[in-house]
Amino acid sequence: MRAYIAARLATAVLVILGVSIVSFFLTFLTGDPAEIMLPPGATAAQIEKFRADWGFDDPVIVQYWRFLKRAVHGDFGISLRHGQQSLPLIAARLPATLQLTLTAMVLAIALAVPLGVLAATHRGGPIDLLAMGVALVGQSVPNFWLAIMMILLFAVSWGLLPTSGRGGVAHVVMPAAAIAINLMALLTRLVRSTMIEMLSEDYVRTARAKGLRELFVTSRHALPNALIPLVTVIGLQFGYILGGAVVIETIFTWPGVGLFTIQAILNRDYPVVQASVFILATAVVLINLTVDLLYVWLDPRIRVT
Amino acid sequence: MIRLARRSPLAGAGALIVGLVIVAALAAPLLATTDPIDQDLSEALKPPFWQGDGSLRHPLGTDHLGRDVYSRLIYGAQISLTISVLAAFLGAVVGVVAGLVAGYLGGRVDTIIMRLADLNLAFPLILLALAVVALLGANLKNLVIVMAITTWMIYARVVRGLSLGLREREFVQAARALGAHDARIIARHLLPNVLAPVMVIWTLEVARIILMESALSFLGLGVPPPTPTWGRMLAEGRDYLTVAGWIAVFPGLAILFTVLGINFLGDGLRDLLDPRLRRQT
Amino acid sequence: MSSENPRAENPRAMTRRDALRVLGLTAAAAGLNAGAPVAAAPTGEAKIGLAAEPNTFDPHLTVGRNTQIFIANVYDGLTARDVQGNLVPALAESWKRLNATTWQFALRKGVKFHNGDDFNADSVKFTLDRATNPETKATISSELSTIAGTEVVDAFTVNVATRTPDFLLPVRLGELFGLMLSPKHTNAAGKEAIAVKPNGTGPFKLVTWAKNERLVLEANENYWRGAPKVKTIVVRPILEDAARVAALQAGEVDLIAPIPHVRIAELQKNDKLVIKTIAAPRIFHVTIDVRKPPFDNVKVRQALNYAVDVNAILKTLYFGHGTRLATVVDKGALGYDPSVQPYPYDPSKAKALLAEAGFPNGFEVEFDSFTGSIADHSKPAEAIVGYLQKVGIRAKANVFEFSAFGPRRVQNKTAPLFIYSIGNAYLEPSWVIRWMTQGGLGMHYKNAKLDELLTRIEATDDPKKRAPQYSEVQKLIKDEAPFIFLYQADAAFGMSTRVDYTPRPDETQWLYPLGLKG
After folding, report:
1. Which end of chain C has a smaller Cβ tally under 10 Å, C or N?
2. ipTM value
3. Chain C residues closer than 8 Å to B37 by CB
4. Which residue of A has its CA nearest to B158?
């Protein structure tokens, strides 16, 4: 087991390096920030001079090597736009993002698992139909539209919740809900479908045949295995959400990593993009590692290669 | 087709809805009343015919440039559907194959494939979309590829997990003992067993891609104007939600309707595959 | 990136401020401690919601007009603008030109930075040297590239030498690019600290800054113009238009800027809110590559202008909140000549001109536009492309993301037609037109007569004498039609009835005069 973890960590480093290289090249290839950093009155000659001053006209490899040398010391460079060290800038945003995404995930799981289990165990009945209906609608709603509608209703018309910004429970409710709704729908359906599979599996039928009570059967034998794809998908979705809740963060001006990153990408702020990509990649890789370990714990039949 | 409907009314209903959408997409030139990109600023922001000063000339109203919402909706079906279905399908094919191979063969192959998935997953979609759009241009083909790239990992990981379990099962062991080739085992024994969750995931993915397309349009990285896609119409309508809600409501409903249909179809198909699955075991 | 028309729409609020300023000036001139002359102590807290926050408080590393217009609350330049857009003294009490390439500034005495450091000639030399030092890599270096050197004559007099005659130097060294730093503090604190902990001479101090969350300004009670009225201003960046308007409606903030044009009518009906608009001097235009046929033919260029119904665009996309421009001179700029009429919308005339030029069936062309950036260019671009197609010009639209569009401009790889806008931060048409005739960045129109007219204008120091000379310039540009002339849009501010604020037409978010009622 320990060898497995060690090997996984080694490849994790490779993955993070890979992401860093690809993202640097891609950001670079799509244009450097010189034109957008200078005032509009700058002439072409002045832009060239600026580019030379900042070293943007050096070959990509040279620039990446410069970046890498400092990065191994934890110095991701000074943000071109903010004039501050990049890594701390991004790190300062993590708590906000974690607050939002964890709340959203807890919300989604807390609703999806019971709903999915109920639907699977009462398959074909009205509860199943209701659960599926809710899930279907939830997964079809464009979440930014939902977010704006929520703001208009709860904040402006009814004055119950604040319109935007970060804060405590009142502030996090709407953005978390907007993120959670698609996720909840997805998880409900997955839980239901895998539960149905498991419930018809041999070993479950065997357990049932032995006369164990329905409930016991469900929880002890079926649920852990139903959780495998669930855990996988949650792990995957966390990766999406972490970097991808950009739209929701924008609408609520939630000062998270996603919003900051997309601004940095559009501004070609290389150091910040690199710092952000590094943090996000590390988070995702670690989560995937956790998911893989959970696999083994949940299904003893899986042999770890 | 009729047999399908009889066996599972859900699948039948789904097929009907999806069929309607596909017909709308294919017959767009016949069903639309105007050229979807024809502007007329004097007719801008007219409401649907049942409100205010709307008229049957523009039954679902007009957008901020005076373009007919109904016609754009019909043509939008063509494009949104094409992108989403193609991207989801492409992603599914790549992902399922990758997952089966990784789970079944294990070892180095597994590691490489999963690490590629990790890399892809850890990579910010926005950056990828931006890079593709900036370097290769924003057109349908490139967007399909971008979105396929964001979806294959889900299948790969889930299928791999299932493969790992299935690999140890008796019927697989038996087949191996009988000397069957790996490829055959994967195709005949593993694939059918993963189809059910894959189907569910696929239907969800099509939906997610349709929504992702609108998110990319929101950020200005989607299909470029004036091409009407539902996602683009949603993004354009966002600025006018409080004064001309119809611009965003109808494509939103179209998305909902289509996604619903796809899900009914997927569910129905899963139900149909179920008895077959049981037969395998 | 844009500036505003300083012509005030509402001069009534000026009187009290004027009085304070005069008092401040007198006190300073008499060598007294330029502390708050007679103003009452600042009280109260105002909350503001903006679409963007500054990227840094280091005046030499600002990116974008949004930053420049905001940090002017914490710093001062040598000059400033009043509500009518006239250039007025700030940290410099007077200035004159010694010779063609040297300006002399007489500095205000008794001004202190927030931390107590004195402002004097050394501050000016230090600031300008830092800005022009290649090691600083200042983003505003392009705007100060005319400066050759700064000389301290005595403690309160500096001479600034320029490489070529620069009639705009006093404006450059004002609120735009001449915000003054304290040498002692800047050297001690270092570059990174200045970005987030500024030390200026301005009416407000930056107390807290949590990026993307909030920014807190506190009144500088020793401000040389007199302390501001409000003690604390909390600024929240709210990027999403709908959320910003919602925040105002819900009373979470007292003032927001900007308001999207589509919401103005609805908000004007709200009794609890006051909406004020100003004509933002951002000049929208479509650049025509006059080198490439058929655009080398003036008839074709004029046809393009007749083909687009700009008034309809203003009405539908901006809900009427904008001004049609006949040329590339904005309404509030010096020398704007309203007698130069814009091209009317006349598609048949457009087709006739095209036929005369040899294109009775139109032709194909590519049209570039982009998304992102601080103003929406893609919607007007779509509308324009639509109009061109109606007269037979089969324009193919290419839409780029803003940062990807930049390299195309710099490498002169833009389509023959592309939409763009330029903010006339200098309020001087010559600056805009020189930029547009630079022969690079996709703009290749040149005209010797135009150059001659501009050179004569630039040699005229007195603005009153410069203004009428611009009429000929505008007539020339209109007839030559090297652009499709479009418009300037209004900027709308929304505030609750408890706020007393008149937006400054040059877009500087000048919070000094902001007051609270009740």
Report:
1. C
2. 0.77
3. 386
4. A229
